Amino acid sequence: MSALAGRLAKDLPSTGDRAGTHADLLHDRHELGTVDAERLLGEDHPGTLTARNNLATSYWQAGRTDEATVVLERVAADRERILGPDHPDTLTARANLASAYWQAGRTDGAVDLLRSVAENQDRVLGPVHPDTVMSRAGLATVLTRRGRALLPGDPAGAWRDAAEAVQVVGPYLSDALARYGPVLAEAYGLAAAVLDADGQPEAAADFRSRALQATGTAPPPRPGDGAADGSRP
Questions:
Q1: Predicted confidence band of residue 227 (pLDDT cuts 50, 70, 90)
Q2: Residue 92 CB contacts under 8 Å (≥ 6 apart), including other chains
Q3: Do the beta carbons of residue 48 and residue 41 sit within 8 Å?
Q4: pLDDT for 75-111, tens place per residue?
Q5: Are 148 and 190 in contact (CB under 8 A)?
Q6: Which 3 state secondary structure label does DSSP give 196?
Q7: Beta strand ranges found along the chain (DSSP E)
Q8: How far apart are CA 57 and CA 45, in angstroms?
């Protein structure tokens, strides 16, 4: 997903007094740094915005999810106001906020924001820019995981999420095979699960084959092999 998401995945504190104490000291330091930046540099200075972003990351490390999200919402809004909606720093801030929404369980908000960020990064930075690739992969991942959660009670919704995830990364697979391949395979796996639940094992098997092809572990099918792309649950 975003750079922040990667940090969050690695840096969320473990259970244990030592880890908790370190995280507490870290966010205390960043709170003081943010106050000093606001006083010395001003509310809208780029250094102040960076200090707030660092503060949000330290809140995540301390397990203070709600506070981290509030700070990131402010950073995203301030960067958009000061730099404009298409500035790369604004797009990064919005991607970080989407990551925070996902981590906080606000899945629909994360999906909506990542859609917008990925589209704008593609337009502003280009489809092969690392930030664009990261946001596209993040959007497809969140869609697939939301679809997995929907599958037991809403297979049609799960199928929609799988189909969108495939469309988000599938056409760009050759641009970033190592990054998009596993994500595309997960989306195909979700599609297969939906078809299995609907009693379409042959179509499901075709999508599992596509998942293997996406990760480079199976040869591509011959023209005409497998289920039609239009299979639906």
A1: very low
A2: 2, 3, 131
A3: yes
A4: 999 999 999 999 999 999 999 999 999 988 999 999 9
A5: yes
A6: helix
A7: none
A8: 19
Reported as a single tens digit per residue, the pLDDT across 115-148 is: 999 999 999 999 999 999 999 999 999 999 999 9
SS3 117: helix
Q: Give Cα 62 distance to the centre of its chain.
A: 21
Q: How many residues does the chain have?
A: 233
Measured CA to CA in angstroms, residue 115 lies from 2, 32, 67, 132, 196 at distances of 13, 35, 24, 11, 28
pTM: 0.79
Count of CB atoms within 10 A of residue 89's CB? 17
Are 187 and 166 spatial neighbours (Cβ–Cβ below 8 Å)? yes
Looking at residue 48, its pLDDT comes to 82
Q: Are 76 and 97 in contact (CB under 8 A)?
A: yes
Q: Where are the beta strands (DSSP E) in 78-210?
A: none
